[in-house]
UniProtKB/TrEMBL annotation:
The keyword Protein biosynthesis does not apply. Belongs to the 1-acyl-sn-glycerol-3-phosphate acyltransferase family. Pfam families: Acyltransferase. One of its GO terms (biological process) is phosphatidic acid biosynthetic process. GO terms for cellular component: membrane. Pathway: Lipid metabolism; Phospholipid metabolism; CDP-diacylglycerol biosynthesis; CDP-diacylglycerol from sn-glycerol 3-phosphate: step 2/3. It is an enzyme of class 2 (transferase). GO terms for molecular function: 1-acylglycerol-3-phosphate O-acyltransferase activity. It catalyses: a 1-acyl-sn-glycero-3-phosphate + an acyl-CoA = a 1,2-diacyl-sn-glycero-3-phosphate + CoA. This is 1-acyl-sn-glycerol-3-phosphate acyltransferase. The keyword Transferase applies. Keywords: Acyltransferase, Lipid biosynthesis, Lipid metabolism, Phospholipid biosynthesis, Phospholipid metabolism, Transferase. InterPro entries: AGP_acyltrans, Plipid/glycerol_acylTrfase.
């Protein structure tokens, strides 16, 4: 049983080239995303467009950890549930959501997470939270760093609709990282965030 709508993703994979063209998305390194095992995709975060963009370039479905408030938004809430998103209670350590993510990774799924926990200002990065470090430590799964640029121009904080065509969007996927799972969660998260910045 899939934790997402397989039919929905089958349709999505057929139509997503259209969105890549409209949003002017350029990408490289997607071959670094493992196809046959559970893994963690860790990306910087500057726009609500980021999860959508990553799912337009990934060779497999990404199940994102998303703030719980989004699940109550009409239509969007239904859509992200069908996409297999995991609700996360912000401003406190949500053990239940982390356990769910660990379970899905061990079952062979691809989990997407933004280590910063919230959107950063244009051109900046926030200090990472320890959640991604915990996932790496508990699963020892491959963690793939990803850097996204341009989404904060196309769909900045406070904007109601994307500004299509204002900027290209760039996605660079790095090679899976070798991480010492015995390190403290916070140190693992910091290491991953530094690798994202290097891309």
């Amino acid at each position: 049983m899939f934790p997402y709508s397989k039919t929905g993703y089958d349709i999505w994979f057929k139509i997503r080239p259209f969105f890549r063209t409209v949003l002017r998305i350029e990408f490289e390194g997607v071959e670094n995303i493992p196809l046959d095992k559970g893994c963690i995709l860790a990306a910087n975060h500057r726009s609500n467009l980021d999860p959508f963009v990553l799912n337009t370039v990934s060779p497999r479905p990404i199940l994102f950890m998303a703030k719980q408030e989004l699940f109550g938004v009409p239509l969007l809430g239904w859509f992200i549930k069908k996409a297999g998103a995991i609700p996360v209670k912000r401003n406190k350590r949500d053990i239940a959501s982390l356990k769910k993510a660990v379970e899905l990774i061990k079952d062979g799924h691809c989990i997407g997470i933004f280590p910063e926990g919230a959107r950063a200002k244009p051109g900046e990065f926030r200090k990472p939270q320890s959640g991604v470090g915990l996932l790496v430590s508990k699963t020892e799964a491959p963690v793939v760093p990803i850097r996204i640029e341009g989404t904060d121009i196309v769909y900045p904080v406070g904007s109601k609709i994307p500004k299509i065509g204002k900027s290209k969007i760039y996605v660079k996927v790095g090679k899976p990282l070798t991480v010492d799972s015995n390190m403290e969660y916070s140190r693992i998260s910091e290491y991953i965030m530094e690798e994202i910045k290097r891309l």
